[in-house]
Amino acid sequence: MDLLRFITAGSVDDGKSTLIGRLLYDSKSIMIDQLEAIERQSKNKEEGEIDLALLTDGLRAEREQGITIDVAYKYFSTPKRKFIIADAPGHIQYTRNMVTGASNSDLIIILIDARSGVVEQTRRHSIIASLLKLPHVVVAINKMDLVEHSQDVFNNIVIDYAAMAKSLGLEQVTYIPISALNGDNIVEKSTAISWYEGPSLLKVLENVQVQKDINLTHARFPVQYVIRPQTEELHDYRGYAGKLVSGVYKKGDTVTILPSGTSTTISAIETGGKQVEEAFAPQSIILHLADDVDVSRGDVIVKSDDLPSVGQDLEVLLCWMDSKPLVAGRKYLLQLNSTLVKSVVKEISYKVDVNTLEQHQAPEQAVLNDIVKVVIKTAKPVAFDAYEKLRVNGGAILIDETSHVTVGACMIQ
Amino acid sequence: MYELDYLDHLESEAIHIMREVAGQFEKPALLFSGGKDSITLVHLALKAFRPGKFPFPLVHIDTGHNFPEALRFRDELAASIDEKLVVRQVGDTIKAKGLTEPKGKFASRNALQTFTLLDTIEEFGFDACIGGARRDEEKARAKERIFSVRDEFGQWDPKLQRPELWNTYNGRINKGENVRVFPISNWTELDIWNYIRREKIALPSIYFAHEREVLEHEGQLVATSEFIQLEPGDKVSTKTVRYRTVGDMTCTAAVESSASSIDDIIREIIATKTSERGETRIDDKVSEAAMEDRKKNGYF
Predict the structure, then answer these.
(1) pLDDT > 90 in chain A, percent
(2) E.C. number, please (chain A) (predicted)?
(3) Confidence class of residue B300 from pLDDT cuts 50, 70 and 90?
């Protein structure tokens, strides 16, 4: 059994919460006591209607105001796969929350109301999916029951979306006609939408190939922590603990430690207390090196025949997440995996219009939810890859040095 | 060929999170109650840090109302892995601070635990506390970050959480603040049991079927003990039960079960129609937002 992480996107009334509720309900991941709790809160309980959306609003303020404040994570499994849903709110603080939920997702479900078709929100979701390089997109055309399950309506929306997807470079797009409210094509194939011959949404989620999204080509190992027992019997033990974020390492591989550039070979690999001949992403392991070289947290161990970029000048696509605006010239901490380095935002080159993808030249500042292209200079050299090439070594965060808040999501170009 | 099972994914993620704590903080701690989730955390810490020592002590905030089997297991486990165990008693805090104990039939010290926890954090200067909370347990927990920042009063503000991007965890804090870290956030109850089975992790005996004298109360089975006042008319009987969670004897209910092995338990959990906390926790039922309110006040 493997694991799929996905995010759902849709505007307020597209039925996103109902869809999630339906997936959990029909896959029997809701327990009786949880159902009873939402039954008690459902406003139309006299008519026997349960508001499945209540399942996803976990906070008092959310229930009081009927809005979703923040990303919530939900879980369900089938015999084939375990699923982690990042449930990001559809309206307020829009971009920031979607970027957060999308950053560790393999797939996005974009909900479209069959009555309205591709709208501005759809375009915005899709642009964010393309900027974040989500490998898989599922377009769920919802409320088919309200358009008499019309195949023409579905086909027209597919044609519209496909044109947009092409212009955005979204490659893996699957289209499904659904009714989240009635459960059509969610878990079981719908009899009401008889002309649709494809799989149900759950079948798509179960069968999408995510293993091939893990990059096994470029080996990157950010060192998190050095293990040195310093006991009598383990006097010389010095292991570098970390997660292999991408690639494969074998005992005997020649490696380079960045940013210093020192080379050595892997003398041993341990995982779970056992020595192994090789390890691969995303395993957490301990590496041992043949030579006594200087390695500490923040260094990256890579294979010598496949080096990432090393430098202090980064071109970055940045989603600004703080209520205080970003002004060029400000200093922040940049964290890329275990590397933490002082940095300065030298220049805001342009702002991306998340509705049109147009570039607006050199704004004075970036405000909450803006996506801007910036130039960042780091105080020390950093080993990085382009986000487009290797998400796991090209996505970084900016941290405010005084409030310590995460203020920006960086996709290194 | 290079494929990981979902349990390997979850394990690797949890180890990665623990090592981030080791790498980012000066004085971390691992909150350890002797229940299955924190026992799993200890097992993950062994994988993350052996052959080295843990970069943190195990810390138990003992309400004084724990199951003796769980306490014995706690002490034996800490001794067998030769790691430091810090125990602080809620009873001591009650005396020292003149706190008022809740009254009533199932008077629970659960909420008072927060005082002792915050005092212990201050006493040792802990800047990060690793805990075994899971997002599937409760709806307020589903909203919480893996690195959850608490202010100097230990308070959680759900509206002011840091965005958590990729696998990058921001543990920067001001002095006095601390971070609660939840490495098994993405695990469900069933994931925990499947992992315990796979890794052959030992558990306290109360997780398995045994005979116990219980009081039947509103459909729940509560073990009789010196901490619960029996009243005339109370229905007490001896039943074959086990526990799905291990909290205080005053607020944790048993389930009737003959499951004597982990395989049996997994079969039962797959078939059950009631959630872990719904079936066994009296303290969550106080109000719709009981957990959220406790967390805002500094509960772990």
Answers:
(1) 65
(2) 2.7.7.4
(3) low
Give chain B positions within 8 Å (CB) of A69: 143, 158-159
Residues A82 and A183 in one domain: yes
Q: Chain A: give the shortest CA distance to residue B97, in Å.
A: 31
Q: Tell me: pLDDT of A112 over 80.
A: yes
Domain that holds residue A297: 220-303
Chain B residues near residue A273 by CB distance under 8 angstroms: 46-47, 50-51
Shared-domain flag, residues A203 and A259: no
Nearest-Cα distance to chain B for A18, in Å, is: 16
Q: pTM for the whole thing?
A: 0.93
Nearest neighbour of A335 by CB, restricted to B12, B168, B273: B168
Cβ contacts (< 8 Å) between B279 and chain A: which residues? 33
Tally of residues, chain A: 413
Looking at the structure, tell me whether residues A29 and A156 fall in a common domain.
yes
ipTM above 0.90, yes or no: yes
Which of A276, A303, A330 corresponds to the end of one domain? A303
Question: Which residue has better confidence, B137 or A29?
Answer: B137
CB atoms B164 and A228 under 8 Å? no
Residue A13 has a pLDDT of 67
Looking at the structure, do residues A89 and A32 belong to the same domain, yes or no?
A: yes
Predicted confidence at residue A181, as pLDDT, reads: 86
Nearest to B201 by CA among B55, B85, B74, B42: B42
A79 contact B CB<8A: no
The total number of structural domains that make up chain A: 3
Residue A372 sits in a domain of what CATH number?
Answer: 2.40.30.10
Closest to A335 (Cβ–Cβ): which among B55, B163, B170?
Answer: B170
> Are A326 and A341 within one domain?
yes
Same domain, A201 and A245: no
Q: Is A12 on the interface with B (CB under 8 A)?
A: no
Domain check: are A162 and A19 in the same one?
yes
Question: Are residues A180 and A33 both part of a single domain?
Answer: yes
Tens digits of residue pLDDT in A291-315? 999 999 999 999 999 999 999 999 9
Last residue within a domain, chosen from A303, A331, A365 = A303
pLDDT in tens, B145-181: 999 999 888 888 877 788 899 999 999 999 889 999 9
CATH number reported for the structural domain that contains residue A154 in this entry = 3.40.50.300
Nearest to A315 by CA among A251, A380, A213, A386: A386
B271 touches chain A (CB under 8 A): no
